Amino acid sequence: MGNLLESNGGTRATLILDHESSSVNLRQQLESSDWRVHVAEHMKEFKRLFQQHRFEVVVVYFNDNSLTEISELETLASHNIITKWVAIIPSDTWLDSHPNILFSHLFYDYHRQPLRYDHLLATIGHAYGMAKLQHQKLRRLKVQHKDDDIIGQSPVTQKLQQRVSVVSKQATPVLINGDSGSGKQFIARLLHKQSKSSHGKLSSINCGATPEHLVSSELFGHEAGSLHAGCELKVGQIQQCNNGTLLLNDVEELPLRVQSSLARFIDNQEFHPIGASNVSISNCRIIATSSNDLRQLVNTKQFRNELYQALTTTTIEVPTLSERHQDINHLAQYFVSQFCEHQEIKRFSQCALDAMQHYHWPGNVRELMNRIRRAIILSEGELISKSHLELPTNNGIQNLTLQDARDKVEKEVVVRTIAQTGYNHSQAAKELGISRTSLYRLISKHQIAL
Question: Which residues, 6 or more positions from 424, have their beta carbon under 8 angstroms from its beta carbon?
Fold first, then answer.
């Protein structure tokens, strides 16, 4: 996976999921305001872009014919909880047949078609500002990497620890399988640190984020002038990691022709830099990660069987956080101690601990870490409460009527907007597109305590 915190060169950037080319006008208006706009017409492209870049704002168009699964979007969003999501829906009546949109905690705001672009652009701009501010605060809270061991004492974690201990003593290639955010890169660093080649270099390549025409050069290097006139000699990562380890993240994203070259290198440790007439040799250990079933990709001709066979000499399966739920409290306390190392130590309320135990964690350890980072910022005192974690919940949905659901969402939007505007009622009313009198009626209707 690409770096989720990779910026877009300082330019405001947004990602739009639009199945029916409905976003042409929005794209034009954003670009005229110096936004960089990426549009994905299908979910696969949307996932690829979201995982490769950091977008402060994402816009999702919903329509009558196709509805992207909310659960799929929520899982994707859990990998980067800073991003603000905006939903574009066809009409109010559309919600009658799609009430799950109302219950989703994913969306920062909703807009109905036909769109009022002045309101929509104001929402996107405000969302960008909120996300940017949160990101700046979170950057000050970084985990001090300690790759000594895997945090947790559950049976599944103990089994993983034993497996890592055995594999680290070997020199064979390793394939690490596991869901996104489960800690595959951490396991790879741990394998390198505990191996006999720990004194050598550890480097990594995000296969899905490296342009296809540059992947071979990045891996194997190239001779001067071999790619174009004037290009300089480049030593590839495989040679740089001689007597060390090269980590290939999302190995299934490698082009098929490069997969064949990599399989040959694993087989005999020989490779040809681009433009070279002589063979090169490197004692580089390959560790690859994947969130997909490579066997299935082999069956559908999307992954080379020879590379699959070479990588699966030794495998490690990383469990999801739900499978090691007994470790959640240990991990939470660890992250708090790391983030608060030079600040006031914070602690969790019992309700917060219980909520973390019962949440399903689609984004795994990464989501847990990110939510705790944000909770530390949101909590003013030493206590981190359940509300600071901002965990999505669907409790009581089955017992709500559609009107109850509308009221629930309406109240949440009003409360959130008032808080975001610093309890400035005039500004809150402006943000909501209503008069102050209407805002006061909503405050009274929903018995909002101010």
Answer: none
Q: Which of 253, 323, 237, 326 is nearest to 291 (CA)?
A: 253
Q: State the Cα–Cα distance between residues 315 and 321, nearest whole angstrom.
A: 19
Instruction: Tell me: do 104 and 239 sit in the same domain.
Output: no
- Give the model's confidence band at 327: pLDDT under 50 very low, under 70 low, under 90 confident, else very high: very high
Q: 9 and 106 share a domain?
A: yes
Helix (H) or strand (E) holding 407: helix 402-420
Q: Which residue has the tokens 């990660």?
A: 289
Could you tell me which residues come within 8 angstroms of residue 304 by beta carbon, excluding any fewer than 6 positions away? Answer: 256, 259, 260, 263, 298
Q: Is 217 exposed, middle or buried (0-12, 13-18, 19+ CB in 10 A)?
A: buried
Confidence label for 225 from pLDDT (cuts 50, 70 and 90): confident
User: What is the predicted pLDDT for the residue at 28?
Assistant: 94
Same domain, residue pair 4 and 64: yes
Domain count, the chain: 2
User: Residue 65 above 70 pLDDT?
Assistant: no
Backbone angles phi and psi of 11, in degrees to 5: -85, 140
Last residue of a domain, one of 288, 317, 346: 317
Number of H helices, E strands in the chain: 20, 16
Alpha helix (H) residue ranges in 33-116: 43-52, 70-77, 94-97, 100-103
Which range (190-204, 229-243, 329-343) has the least confidence?
329-343
Beta carbons of 298 and 326 less than 8 angstroms apart: no
Asked if pLDDT for residue 175 goes beyond 70, the answer is yes
> Average per-residue pLDDT in the chain?
85
Q: Is the pLDDT of residue 191 over 50?
A: yes
Q: Which domain holds residue 83?
A: 1-139
Considering the domain architecture, whether residues 65 and 107 belong to the same structural domain is answered as yes
Q: 337 is written with which tokens?
A: 């101690």
Q: What Cα–Cα distance (Å) separates residue 134 from each residue in 82, 84, 258, 273, 330?
A: 7, 11, 39, 44, 26
Q: 271 forms bridges with which residues in the sheet?
A: 280
Higher pLDDT, 213 or 189: 189
Which pLDDT score, from 0 to 100, does residue 63 have? Answer: 78
376 belongs to a structural domain: no
Amino acid letter for position 144: Q
Alpha-carbon Rg for the chain in angstroms? 25
- Choosing from 317, 336, 369, the residue where a domain stops is 317
**pTM, entire model:** 0.67
